[in-house]
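Hey team,

Filing this mostly as a record. A colleague (T.K.) asked me to run one chain through the structure pipeline before their review meeting, and I want the input and output archived in the tracker in case anyone asks later how it was produced. No errors, nothing strange. Just documentation.

Input sequence:
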Amino acid sequence: MPERPLLILPSPTEPPKQKRKGFPPQRPHLPSRERQAERMTPKLAILQEALDARRARLRTEASGVIPEEVIVLETVGPVNDFIEAVRSVRGLEWLGEIEEEDIPPDDDFFVVDRDGASRTDKLLRGRLFLVLSNHQALQQMLSLWSLWKTDQALPWGFGKWSDLFSQLRDVRPWGVRDRLHETGVLDDWRDRVEHNAELIPCEIELWFRVDHRRRRAARDRVAAIVQSLQGTVRNEALIEEIGYHALLAQLPIGSVRLLLVETGQESSLIQCEQIQFLRASGQMAGIVLEDERTTDIRTVQPDVAPLGEPVVALFDGLPLQSHRRLSGRLVVDDPDGFETDYQAAERRHGTAMASLIIHGDIDADEPPINRLLYVRPILRPDERDWRQPRQETAPENSLVVDLIHRAVRRLFEGDGNAPAVARQICVINLSIGIRDRLFESAISPLARLLDWLAWKYQVLFVVSAGNHAQSIVLDVPRNQVASMSPQDLQATVIKAVAADARHRRLLSPAEAVNALTVGAVHSDASTGQGVVRAIQPYCDDDLPSIINAQGMGYRRAIKPEILVPGGRTVLLESLQQGANAILDVYTQSRQPGQCVAAPGPTPGDLSYTWYGRGTSNAAALASRTASRLYDVLEELRQGAGGDVIETVPYAVWLKALLVHGANWGTAGDVLRMVLLTSRNSRRFKEYLTRLIGYGIIDPIRVSECSEHRVTALGGGLIQSNQSHIHRFPLPPSLSGQRGWRQLVITLAWISPVNPVHQSWRRADISFTPPLTSLQVARMQADWHAVQRGTLQHEILEGEKATAFIDGDNLEIQVNCRADAGVLEDMVPYALATTLEVAEEINIDIYSEVSVRVRAAQIRVASSG
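Output structure:
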């Protein structure tokens, strides 16, 4: 137990209920009814022609098949509760909605400010409503349109259609481009055809149908098309709770060649209206390093006490269990038998991640965690990789969503007749991502799965944001790089990386709302420089790695939330030709970087290490920190107020504590100096969070307190339309004192989800910072952005003197409301609050606050 442990606040109280106040939202300017009729009538006519053509074609192809078409209705602005309007039309089936951002304004649609001024420079937001329509439903929709455009009243119960028609920006069928856009499937097929693969796997994501008969009919139709191409359906996954239905198909090379030719023509598979997406299989992986190792000559201290049961699970490749850094420290659970075809030299990524979780950066010489690490292999060597060692990827004969679903269920419920294998797990580390699934606007199936599993089992997924190691094109001539000062080169690299945000988006499942997503800091403990002619991109410390994937996340939530050291990445002058300088990212295994365990050149070499870097490393170190913070919570649970710790699942506490020490630090100042312009100044804080999230974590700040810094925890269970007030005692000696003080408040929860609602998270929980009590102001992250996910982290600072008396408290009110339909569940949440003052003030605030917290605990206990 540290000398000054964290404090636990008494249970919260409920305030009198008050109506929430807010500003009216900005509304877009909409075109007139006459203009809408002029714009949309031709598009609706084209839509009808497409469905008529499909009806005619299906009459000749398959008797008994009802012709249907997936229709995309694009609006500017939201149309709330439109799902009920769809259900009012017989034959229309709701498939979902997608939020659309950054819609450019035009003469018809533009933003109108609250004062009535037109803002033709401001981007718009809207929705894509996805519905499945047959001929009868389309005719009724067109009938409603005819009434609306002639200003006739719509029938009772169809009023929402009026809102939709007035805001309609476009209408079109879901087509070939939608099924193939950014899925990577065409590139994967071309690569496999080029290498003469006999059988080619393909993931087919179907539209999720609520009715099980329609679901089965859709499945049978797609399976029949696959069979007509001489292919087979190898696997099927159905998870109703997240609206997911997918098939794993295997197609012969001849059929795939035809599909590549027919992508713009009439291919029965690519044109199939039951299919939402076609995806490449086996695309989940981590960064692959070249074969360059060193011998680990450091002494590995033997364990002096039995290791505790694992609380962190690593889902990754199979590690080298007998490596001297890992021996006796792993619980490897391999029910799929991946180990039989996993040579020692190929166990690279899992070995590195296990090493980082257990030991951290070996060059930092930190003690290992005092617990075992549970490992479930979900990667295996790629069977079609001709290199040695082969790349580690998700197996092609399984659907990734199904594989991870089974792996998590095995932890907490068991598998088949076998019991649960590790119910005590609180954190699941996923240091891998789907390479061809960059987040755009719709949340991916794997992210949806993690969100649902996080709520169902109250477990924290720690996910890497993803790496982008493509070349960096600088806005300077190539012959000027050598003469640039370190500061100028740093600024130029920062601008180039920030400008390439479109190609550096999060990799699935990093956008998961309930997950904690981790980016990398350009930092490590290595002292050597093993890369010849290396170019150092940065001269300042603690900047975000140049290979980080960048947020925002789903519904513009802050992603990645935290940055953790992920190794220094250096650059090399590229051999590519061009007028501007092009720098390649060094991805091999020499210094600089983080030192990790690695397989040796022969099976008997069990002491080798190498150097790596990236967000995979950063996520592993975040999970290592979580394992240590678990022990902090265990100590607090056994002390005064420990019942509060037991009320909230440990996963939620760990989520709050991992973020609570995060701060932009000097990185925020450097990035502001380089990237702030007059054009982005109004939303610069939100812009900066794309690169830095909530900032770099500091585990020491959330493990113990000091004389001048005190941290207190509060939490509970809250339901919709309920509020809790937590009271943090003010140190009386601070009253009237002028000087720097900082208040940090972090609120974390795991939300239930609603798969048929665009808002997705059912629980919206937030607090309003107590600004006036200490005369502090919001700093760092944008105050709108912090309320969009499942983490609110606010840093408040000030210097003005403020007066209060002994017994006064900071009152932090936590509010809960439903966000995606009805919220029926009680939602556990964790609240961490830290007050820190400058040492020059010379006040032991820890002693003053702790005395008053304990007195409040005694009063609550005696009154209970």
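Quick notes for T.K.: Residues 33-61 form the longest helix (29 residues). DSSP finds 18 helices and 37 strands in the chain.
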